[in-house]
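hey can u check if this looks right to u? its 295 residues, i copy pasted from the old doc so theres a chance i mangled smth
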Amino acid sequence: MLDRQHLSILREVDRLGSLTAAAERLNVTQSALSHTIRKLEERYGVAMWEKDGRNLRLTEAGRYIVTVAQRVLPQIERAEDTLSDYRYGQRGSLKIGMECHPCHQWLMGVTKPYLVDWPHVDLELTTSFAFGGVAALTVYEIDILITPDPIEAPGILYVPVFDYELVLAVPSDHRLALKDCAEPADLLNETLFTYPVPPQRLDVFTQFLVPANFGPRHHRNVETTEMMLQLVAAGRGVSAIPDWLVRQEAASLGVRPVRIGQTGIQKSIHLGLRSGDEAVDFIAGFLTTSRQIAA
């Protein structure tokens, strides 16, 4: 019967490209690995791989099993980790992924009370998947995705947490500070600071500048909110940033928010999770704490 060992072997052969490397990774002999797959091939009457010179090439059947392994094995490994957590007194492990650069400060406000309420839950944060958050959720690399741009996908549930408006942060003595709202032409001679995100994923471009066929004089990426607002306060340019962050720093830095366009750019932060996981107590607890902090 097809079992976990077959899935693991084919996944490692696909990853590493050779039987020798796969056997070393799985801590078995090469002959034992080959024998295991040969028995599988005999049972189902199909080959899993074929020789290509000194290398191996997966057959169509082998490639199919690898795609199954990529979906199933992370779930099994996640379940084993969770069972181990229970064994050693941990309630579970909650892995959070971020697709929202300015949400770090908000998240810090959530994690402090959450860790107090759930002392036996191990909390991890990652941004390593860049903008593949839905895929990371699907293969159990993360359990919750924080994103302002939810992408609908089968088996993925989104919980809205709070609304905000994307605004321009400008120095208090800037010419735009006197306007009710900025127009695309207002940025023609400006340096625009944004988080290090491709322009095609930035709302200030997709919803404001590109439709009007305008662009800023210069576009600069800045890693942190603090540095971005310091640059704005020093008169080096303007920044597209959530309104709540500008309000927090307006008095101390001498910056003010200006609406982007006459109607503004309205956004919402969502928490994405796998359908059914909202019933897991420590995940439900994170959702509750998130709503409370947002309120």
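Residues 60-87 form the longest helix (28 residues).
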